[in-house]
Amino acid sequence: MVRDYSAFLLGAKTTQRTPTVLEGLGWSPVFARQIDADALTATPPVRVLSVHRSGLQVAGDGIEETIPPGPEATVGDWLLMERARPRSSQVLDRKSLIKRRAPGTGREVQLIAANIDTVFVVTSCNTDFNIARLERYVALAFEADIEPVIVLTKADLAEDPASYVTAARAISDRVPVVALDARGDEPAQALVDWCKPGRTVAFLGSSGVGKSMLSNALLSAQAIATQGIREDDAKGRHTTTRRELHVTPGGCLVLDTPGMRELQLTEAAEGIAGVFEDIEAMAAQCRFADCQHETEPGCAIRTAVDDDRLDPARLARWRKLQAEDAFNSASLAERREKDRAFGKIVRSAVGAKPRNKK
Ligand SMILES: Nc1nc2c(ncn2[C@@H]2O[C@H](COP(=O)(O)OP(=O)(O)OP(=O)(O)O)[C@@H](O)[C@H]2O)c(=O)[nH]1
Ligand SMILES: [Mg+2]
Ligand SMILES: [Zn+2]
């Protein structure tokens, strides 16, 4: 049977009709633009709903299956499915990509999610709340050109939730802050502005902050398991173990993720600059372009600290993130260079032609 895919193509009327199956999965003109009608029929688009060791769980129009690992895809990606050889399915260009330095001693990059529209950075009004960590998450979202929203859960348990809101608001003028009780129907109302049909939202944060609770609230179902946190230090128990996309009754796609123990940035210089744009602007006023903001004369940053216009703790956080990002990005570039050099040796050994540059 040949399906009629014309409604998925760019230019198809989008007003006054029910969304197509693909639109219900987040399909949009950004993807339609990358493919023509023939390709749509020959290699139907599917979205990666979750990644398992055994393969990628994908869904499309009339398609729901697990394909073997192969395409370098992450949850949220769109693939053009090669039915006969699913391993060679092409990954469509992404609207956005969230990545970090993989935890552990390696320097690999870990892809966290693709094609996300809004990141809900989740923390609780308790000892999980940490400005430096929130800044990392916001930088991660800015780097990926994704709109971040800070969500403060457990407002019902805090004596003074407003103090957490004030502290979170100080991170960036560009990031909305919402405090709520993740249980019940408050989240569906408080997050409605970002959870529109066809949009994809993701919850990121430490274990135990209520990411699955929030996902369930949006899904209007107890679809995802949740678990109480440790009483003594408010740490979660890593209840969620995989990243998985779910569709809400209203047609929004929700990504619940496992709690992150550590978030190290890599190749995120612009994201960091976005969080600390006031400091970056001051640095541009220093007399020397390569000012280290230590003992140089005419340093605008030291002057601002001396005049109480800049919090030295915030300055220290900016420097730490910058140094970490520079270190991780440099080692990544080095690894890529080594891989390229190694590839060359292999190719010359087997007499193959060099691969086309992308
Ligand atoms: N009182 C109250 N409890 C909450 C709130 N949000 C979450 N909880 C509780 O906190 C615990 C942890 O919630 P989860 O949703 O499992 O946390 P998580 O972020 O998904 O944790 P991981 O899956 O381990 O990453 C559960 O017992 C929830 O009931 C809230 O706003 N108020
Ligand atoms: Mg969870
Ligand atoms: Zn300076």
From TrEMBL:
EC assignment: 3.6.1.-
Residues annotated to bind Zn(2+): 286, 291, 293, 299
Cofactor(s) the record lists: Zn(2+)
Main subcellular location: cytoplasm
Residues annotated as domain CP-type G: 106-263
DNA-binding is among the record's keywords: no
Binding positions (GTP): 153-156
PROSITE patterns (UniProt xref): ENGC_GTPASE (PS50936), G_CP (PS51721)
Pfam family, any one: RsgA_GTPase
Residue ranges of every copy of the EngC GTPase domain listed in the record: 114-261
GO biological process, one term: ribosomal small subunit biogenesis
Keyword Transferase: no
Localization per Swiss-Prot or TrEMBL: Cytoplasm
Keywords, alphabetical: Cytoplasm, GTP-binding, Hydrolase, Metal-binding, Nucleotide-binding, Ribosome biogenesis, RNA-binding, rRNA-binding, Zinc
Co-factor note (free text): Binds 1 zinc ion per subunit.
GO cellular component, one term: cytoplasm
An example Gene Ontology molecular-function term: GTP binding
Membrane-spanning residues: none
Annotated function: One of several proteins that assist in the late maturation steps of the functional core of the 30S ribosomal subunit. Helps release RbfA from mature subunits. May play a role in the assembly of ribosomal proteins into the subunit. Circularly permuted GTPase that catalyzes slow GTP hydrolysis, GTPase activity is stimulated by the 30S ribosomal subunit.
Subunit: Monomer. Associates with 30S ribosomal subunit, binds 16S rRNA.
NCBIfam families the record matches: ribosome small subunit-dependent GTPase A (TIGR00157)
Family: Belongs to the TRAFAC class YlqF/YawG GTPase family. RsgA subfamily.
Protein name stated in the entry: Small ribosomal subunit biogenesis GTPase RsgA
Protein encoded by which gene: rsgA
